Write the structure tokens for this entry.
Amino acid sequence: MSMLEINDIHVFYGAIHAIKGVSFRVEEHEIVTLIGANGAGKSTILNTVAGLLKPRSGQILFEGKNINSVPANRMVGLGMALCPEGRRIFQQMTVRENLEMGGYSRPAGEIDGSVADVFQRFPRLKEREKQIAGTLSGGEQQMLAMARALMSKPRLMMLDEPSMGLAPILVEQIFDIIRELHAAGTTILLVEQNAQMALSVADRAYVLETGTISMSGEAKALLEDDNVRKAYLGS
Amino acid sequence: MIFLSNLVNGISLGSIYAVIALGYTMVYGIAKMLNFAHGDVIMVGAYVAFCAMQYWGLPPAAALLIAMAVCTVLGITIESLAYRPLRQAASLAVLITAIGMSYLLQNLALLIWGANPKSFPSSMIVLPTLSLFGGGLTISGVTLVAILANLLIMLVLTTFINRTKMGKAMRCVSEDRGAAELMGINVNRTISATFAIGSALAAIAGVLLCSAYPVLMPTTGSMPGIKAFTAAVFGGIGSIPGAMIGGILLGVIEILGKAYISTELGDAIVFAVLIIVLLFRPTGLLGRQVREKV
């Protein structure tokens, strides 16, 4: 049984047919990445898995269970978390409050311990514990978004463009964190425009083009593939 | 001394506006909609309290609690029947629905309680009148209660919003509904709770309002409703301290304007001040400038 299995989903924005029959799967302990150009539908897929959008047809199975009709606010309780595009941290809350909200679905007694764990992984956030999140730098905000998603102790972590808008050194840091999370046993579904970085960290990859999957395979193989290199790696 | 007594009256009226404005501002801040039926929920609260005391012979405290309970249920019902189906609709559709709801409540009240004004029982608030400076300044029991109630409500509300799990969930929904859902927050339930609190406050405001100005009719809530909305915008809509400061300032301006400039122009002065404030601070006194960080 795959951790996540997507079967032929179609997603619409009003009349716009954004996802046209996409199927893929994520096995336990894998890092899988979806790469593709801007507007290919990568974020739409993650938002659909997270329940923020509903597929018009097709199936989404999480740990074997059909979650098509599960509302978004119940997904986190099932064991998945989405760190959304653009971070979407709560700008007016403090760093600590953001983390507490990340643990909203968990018993109150476990929150402090989890915050301490998260601070160990992100010492920078610990320094900024009482700061209003909107005043953090871009890199710190990204770390906070990831830390907040981790607070729910997800088995499947979905990351949407975690490197967006960050300086190269911060991108490296973010990908190091992704590797660490993976090493700690978290399954990861990663959406990236930075195909080079994404393919270097992932086990497998799917290439998305205007709402359909055009290519898939081992990340290392795709990294060597001429078409992928031309289209997404700029060489 | 007359000035002082006008000032106290202004603060008292302003405190009532502030309690109403808190309801407006909470619903606006969290559900992102202007609930123009809020003023009419006040009227319903006042009628329920009136009936409880006058017809069922209940003590004032019980009457207040019943009014709060009825308004809470009414608020939740209005939200789930009229506003929730429009969650994805354009904000103009929601606004028009709210105005329609306002007329619906007024006409239902007309049907149930008739058009004749009822005289709200003065036994609601039985505090004695406070006499200061050898009788130079008298402060009525209603005035005191209004001011104290306002401070207490503001304190409780601020603590609730900042400290409790539900309060924090409300702040999340206020900032980013989608992200709130990703945290596991039930957005519908959170908005429902917001309406419940706003409507319970409306019941308190209705009782305070009718204790101070004891004429009760189906349109009793409209003008204070609009003024309190003005107060909320004045203070910065969405901001809890803003609603309080806006409410009190508005009450003071209204009373002082009536006393020293013109009785007839009292309301015009209030709205003129609003326009001037908004010209210089479009987000209101305590409203925050929305800034995006890339």
Chain B touches chain A at residues 165, 168-169, 171-172, 175-176, 178-187, 291, 293-294 (CB under 8 Å). Residues 18-221 of chain B form one domain. The radius of gyration of chain B is 19 Å.
